[in-house]
Amino acid sequence: MTTVAHTLPYTPPEALGIVTDPATERGLEPARIAGVRLDLLEWYGNERRSLPWRSTRDPYCIWVSEVMLQQTQVTTVIGFYERWLRRFPDVAALAGADTEDVLRAWEGLGYYSRARNLQRAAREVVARHGGRLPASREALLALPGIGRYSAGAIASIAFGADEPAIDGNIERVLTRLFALGGDPKRAPLAGQLWALARALLPPGRAGDFNQALMELGATLCTPRAPRCASCPIQRHCSALRADRVLDYPESAPRPAATLERRAVAWVEKKGRVLAVRAPATATRWAGMWQFPDVELTPAQAPQAALAKSLERSTGLRVQVGERLLGLRHQVTRFRIELEVFECRASGGRARALAYDEVRWAAEEELARLPMPSAHRKIARSGPGS
User: Fold this and answer.
1) Do residue 186 and residue 222 come from a single domain?
2) At residue 371, what are phi and psi to the nearest 5 degrees?
3) Of 29, 42, 47, 66, which is the active-site residue?
């Protein structure tokens, strides 16, 4: 059987921008490149998981899946992906949707800037590209929310372009495969990995190859318990040969989570609850509805801080009563502790002084508003819920 392996020219490491050392030079030998390609693609063809976005070549569907999969587990994404496509089946539907509907459909996936950028990009695609997602990496990179990884993934999977794509799974596979030390998020290793990923691409099969690398990292070449005995490219792996698989990648240690304490106001009037919409410039939960809250310093009493913050941000004077509940929420590197207090309006009128909008919302209206998951839990646990 003839394969592409015998026709591939050797590319010197220097030409790929790689700082050479003996291990790296050996890693780029044509026979090894060909072996990795052949073994990985054969394994992927036989063992890949059946996922809904793998049954389509629709660029919009692939784009949506790639954005959802950023920082979110596959098992979580599947249901959201299917519901999203029923609600927003194409670029035009997403571009024309109400932003609150988009955020509500995203609720539960977190990192809501992804949803906002998806819609912003959809509107640009309609305005500048006739409603069709552009095929080139450069044009994709110009769209909101699409970075180097997403552009490579979409271009290769949806359009068949010979473009690499590196996510955390691929970083781990490549650093182990070539036993490359250093932090994969920083120079010089970050550049070396992109160059290696491009050198490994089989012409015309980049989409499958990129997905195979991701699949390998997600299912076998995992961070803490890699299943090396089942790995299709184990015979090519420098880290396995040196019995140092768990030494790679040499990522910088994650900083400890920062504790953030917040007091939240549950203000009820005539069967309705005061809800506020965070401004579009907010660093967290921009454009989302929530209950008025305030970040606490270690020395602050939550009741006094909450009353003062409510008057400043909404113009409403309240008497802060008993603590209703407490809950914890994790957002990236922040560990957020929320204390919810029942409040009674004693004067003033609710206005949007520090928010984009304020509203006295009935229970059924709260259910329709897009809310971050922590505040959704509060809505479900408040008095009378």
Assistant:
1) yes
2) -135, 145
3) 66
Q: What is the chain's length?
A: 385
- 252 domain residue, yes or no: no
Question: For the chain, where are the alpha helices, taking DSSP H only?
Answer: 22-27, 30-47, 59-69, 74-87, 91-96, 99-106, 113-129, 137-141, 148-159, 168-177, 189-200, 206-219, 238-241, 302-314, 363-368, 373-381
Is 66 in the active site?
A: yes
Cα dihedral 195, 196, 202, 205 in deg (nearest 10)? -70
Asked whether residue 56 is assigned to any structural domain, the reply reads yes
Q: pLDDT tens, 178-223?
A: 999 999 999 999 999 999 999 999 999 999 999 999 999 999 999 9
Range of the domain at 311: 258-381
Q: What are phi and psi of 2, to 5 degrees?
A: -95, 135
Q: Enter the pTM of the model.
A: 0.86
22 preceded by cis ω (within 30°)? no
Looking up residue 120, the CATH number of its domain turns out to be 1.10.340.30
Domain boundary among 213, 247, 281: 247
Q: Which of 247, 270, 298 delimits the end of a domain?
A: 247
